[in-house]
UniProtKB/TrEMBL annotation:
Alphabetized SUPFAM superfamilies for the sequence: Immunoglobulin
GO cellular component: plasma membrane
One Pfam family cited in the UniProt record for this chain: I-set
InterPro entries: Cell_Adh-Cytoskel_Orgn (IPR050958), Ig-like_dom (IPR007110), Ig-like_dom_sf (IPR036179), Ig-like_fold (IPR013783), Ig_I-set (IPR013098), Ig_sub2 (IPR003598)
Protein name (database record): Ig-like domain-containing protein
Domain Ig-like: 3-94
GO biological process terms held by the UniProt record: homophilic cell adhesion via plasma membrane adhesion molecules
Keywords linked to the UniProt accession: Disulfide bond, Immunoglobulin domain, Signal
C-alpha cells in the first residue's frame, strides 16, 4: 500500500514548553518517515526528537522541538516513503508571543538576587506560563496567556463600585 498521511500534522504544546508535531501514516511495507524544516531534513539532536511508533495498521510519527524559538517558525513537512510510493503533508508553525519576551521584571529579579526583603510587584506574568495553541486554516498559533495578578488591591481602588456608578 502506498503511504498515506491521514491529515495535516497536529501540533501540541507540552507543559514543559516543547512543541510536538504528530501525524498518522498508513503504509505497507513500513514507511521511512522524514521531517523537514525550510526544506532541510531534521535529525535527532539536542533540540529535535523524531519517533515512529507502530500501531495496528498505522504508524504514529512525531517530531518534538525542545525550547522552541522565534527562528523555529515556518513550514514543517513530513514525508513518508516506501517501495510503493510517497506521501507528504505540510504544517505551518507560528509563535505569537512568549511570556518571557513580553513581561520581563528586572526589578523583582534584582531584589531576589540581593536577597533583600522582597517587594511585591502589583501585577506580573508568571514565567511558567503554559502555552496554548489553536489552528486556523493551515496555520497553528501559539500564545502564552497565563497571567496572574499577585496583588489585586490596586484593582479594587480603580474599579468603581456599583453604588459609585
Amino acid at each position: 500500500m502506498d503511504p498515506f498521511i491521514e491529515q495535516t500534522p497536529s501540533i501540541l504544546n507540552k507543559p514543559d514548553g516543547s512543541v510536538l508535531f504528530e501525524c498518522m501514516v498508513s503504509a505497507n511495507p513500513e514507511p521511512e518517515v522524514k521531517w523537514f524544516f525550510k526544506d532541510q531534513e531534521l535529525t535527532n539532536s539536542d533540540r529535535y526528537t523524531i519517533k515512529k511508533r507502530k500501531m495496528v495498521g498505522k504508524y504514529a510519527c512525531t517530531l518534538q522541538i525542545k525550547q522552541p524559538q522565534n527562528s523555529d517558525q515556518g513550514i514543517y513537512k513530513v514525508v513518508a516513503t516506501n517501495s510503493r510510493g510517497k506521501a507528504e503533508k505540510e504544517q505551518s508553525y507560528v509563535m505569537l508571543c512568549t511570556a518571557d519576551s513580553m513581561y520581563k521584571l528586572p526589578y523583582n529579579d534584582e531584589k531576589k538576587k540581593k536577597k533583600k526583603k522582597k517587594k511585591k510587584c502589583s501585577a506580573w506574568c508568571k514565567r511558567a506560563a503554559k502555552p496554548e495553541s489553536f489552528q486556523f486554516e493551515n496555520f497553528t498559533f501559539t500564545y502564552y496567556a497565563n497571567i496572574r495578578i499577585e496583588d489585586q488591591s490596586f484593582l479594587e481602588s480603580t474599579v468603581p463600585a456599583v453604588s459609585d456608578v
